[in-house]
């Protein structure tokens, strides 16, 4: 099974709107999420599915994910059958509450010979409570995240609520405990409020989120700026890996190192350094980072 890379920004786009999809691929988004679920009315589900399948078959110009319809809907199985193609980075399974839901989709992908991973959206209090069981349900599962609009409705809370922060923190902790890639923060719905988007995205980064989903191209410069590694962050990551390389040939080497500045470097920090440098290298290759 392939594992998709981590990107700074992921732009959701309704798959049935061809002109909007074209503009999305021309935007500053690092990756695109073709949406078959919330952004697509029931009358256009089949059209959206065909359009997503056609885009994947053509070979999309940017890394492409697809959010399918949830298990139990009339469209879920047909969605998976249509998008199980080599160009699919991973499918996003919404409204995920049970490990069996993940395992069922994984079984479909196995039968179709598709090596794409699965990312899930936890959108209920029950899902948050059982997040670790979900995160360890299948080797195909590469990332978990929150669907905050439905989660807020289930919890009967507003946008800026401490309970939601607790759910976000749990998502970060469970991801680490299960050995998954760090989570990607969900969308910010107030489009004109770019200052609020920046503040929210900085907070998400400080909590351990590695990127953010967007619903409009105007949000992308803010998200990309927050998640672009700074020169200081890149150099710090390089120093960590230099210390690892220097100790690799020593018979007494342990998994913990002390840098010249006195910082103790343990395996989690080494993993974080590798993520930072991988992102920086990808950005350099794309021309987004000098």
Automatic annotation (TrEMBL):
SUPFAM superfamilies: Phosphoenolpyruvate/pyruvate domain. Its cofactor is Mg(2+). Signal peptide: none annotated. Keywords: Lyase, Magnesium, Metal-binding. The keyword Transport does not apply. Mg(2+) binds at residues 123, 150. It holds the Pfam family HpcH_HpaI. The keyword Nucleotidyltransferase does not apply. GO terms for molecular function: lyase activity; magnesium ion binding. Substrate binds at residues 67, 123. One of its GO terms (biological process) is oxaloacetate metabolic process. Residues 8-217 form the HpcH/HpaI aldolase/citrate lyase domain. It comes from the Bacteria. InterPro entries: Aldolase/citrate-lyase_domain, Citrate_lyase_beta/mcl1/mcl2, Pyrv/PenolPyrv_kinase-like_dom, Pyrv_kinase-like_dom_sf. This is Citrate lyase.
């Amino acid at each position: 099974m392939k594992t998709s890379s981590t990107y700074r920004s992921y732009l959701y786009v309704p798959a049935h709107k061809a002109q909007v999809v074209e503009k999305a691929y021309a935007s500053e988004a690092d990756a695109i999420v073709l949406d078959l679920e919330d952004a697509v009315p029931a009358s256009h589900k089949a059209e959206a599915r065909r359009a997503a399948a056609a885009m994947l078959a053509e070979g999309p110009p940017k890394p492409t994910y697809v959010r399918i319809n949830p298990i139990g809907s009339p469209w879920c199985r047909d969605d998976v059958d249509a998008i199980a193609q080599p160009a699919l980075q991973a499918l996003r399974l919404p409204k995920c509450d049970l490990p069996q839901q993940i395992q069922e989709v994984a079984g479909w992908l196995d039968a179709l010979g598709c090596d794409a991973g699965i990312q899930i959206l936890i959108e209920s209090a029950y899902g948050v409570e059982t997040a670790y069981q979900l995160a360890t349900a299948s080797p195909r599962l590469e990332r978990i995240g929150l669907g905050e609009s439905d989660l807020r409705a289930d919890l009967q809370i507003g946008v800026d609520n401490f309970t939601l922060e607790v759910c976000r923190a749990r998502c970060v902790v469970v991801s680490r405990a299960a050995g998954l890639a760090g989570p990607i923060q969900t969308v910010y719905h107030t489009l004109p409020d770019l200052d609020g988007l920046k503040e929210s995205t900085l907070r998400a980064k400080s909590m351990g989120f590695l990127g953010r989903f967007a619903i409009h191209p105007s949000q992308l410069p803010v998200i990309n700026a927050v998640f672009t590694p700074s020169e200081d962050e890149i150099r710090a990551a390089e120093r960590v890996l230099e210390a690892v390389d220097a100790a690799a040939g020593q018979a007494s080497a342990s998994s913990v190192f002390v840098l010249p500045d006195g910082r103790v470097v343990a395996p989690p920090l080494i993993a974080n350094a590798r993520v930072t440098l991988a992102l920086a290298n990808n950005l350099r290759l794309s021309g987004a980072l000098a």
